[in-house]
Backbone:
């Protein structure tokens, strides 16, 4: 089985975010980027399939900020091949453009399964996997919490509402959006990542189709406004209780 895992860089949310001058995006120049956490889950699921059945795993990503670190990390964890699609992606790329570039790459590849994170912090609707499957004309399943070898295909477990899990069998090429792997993503020591860097191994190909128009256009973004503050209550229990009642009455939630 040949598996392709699509990886994406996202802003490290421990950073303080600021809007750019025209208010259409975050200011990216001084931010740190890391591998999207859901793509990390997709990679782990691919490596679990490889451990169980000897599958071949290829990781592919657009040439976004700090992407080499993520690709070398994937190789150090056990991926067999890493491909970087080159282009001008430093300012970010829409889900449509990402899917178009990935689809163009995949049309020249032989694969049985594409795994991609179910969403990213910038794309909470999980569009990239759906758009990719549509461009390739392939079946798609999403919100997967397990992808396991199953005869001539894979068994996909999907998390539904109310804690219900749905299982389906997929044979032939397909795209699966992974929400969680069957185990936590494996740790890889920095020494193995450095060894992967010294060995090289990242292939570069120009990204085609990445000029696809986005489904939506961001006209303006706004930082959250601070409209209230916390009041620290002090004193004994009776004084604190009296102040709480007073606050509730001030808010109109309690009548005398």
Residues:
């Amino acid at each position: 089985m040949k598996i392709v895992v699509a990886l994406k860089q996202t802003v490290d949310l421990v950073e303080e975010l600021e809007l750019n001058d025209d208010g259409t995006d975050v200011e990216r120049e001084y931010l740190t980027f890391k591998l999207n956490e859901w793509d990390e889950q997709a990679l782990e699921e691919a490596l679990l399939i490889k451990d169980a059945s000897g599958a071949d795993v290829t990781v592919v990503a657009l040439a976004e900020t700090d992407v080499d670190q993520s690709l070398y990390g994937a190789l150090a964890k056990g991926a067999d091949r890493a491909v970087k699609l080159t282009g001008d992606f430093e300012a970010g790329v829409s889900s449509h453009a990402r899917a178009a570039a990935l689809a163009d790459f995949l049309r020249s590849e032989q694969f049985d399964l594409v795994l991609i994170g179910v969403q990213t912090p910038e794309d909470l609707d999980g569009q990239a996997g759906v758009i990719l499957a549509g461009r390739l004309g392939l079946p798609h399943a999403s919100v997967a919490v397990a992808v396991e070898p199953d005869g001539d295909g894979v068994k996909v477990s999907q998390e539904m509402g109310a804690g219900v899990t749905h299982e389906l069998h997929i044979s032939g090429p397909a795209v699966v959006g992974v929400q969680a792997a069957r185990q936590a993503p494996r740790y890889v020591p920095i020494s193995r990542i450095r060894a992967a860097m010294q060995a090289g191994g990242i292939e570069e190909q120009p990204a085609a189709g990445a000029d696809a128009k986005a489904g939506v256009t961001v006209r303006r973004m706004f930082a959250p406004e601070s409209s209230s503050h916390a009041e620290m209550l002090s004193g004994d229990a009776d004084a604190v209780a009296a102040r709480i009642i007073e606050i509730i009455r001030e808010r109109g939630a309690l009548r005398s």
Residues 137 and 246 are 63 Å apart (CA to CA). Residues 2-206 form a domain with the Rossmann fold fold (CATH 3.40.50.620). The chain has one domain: 2-206.
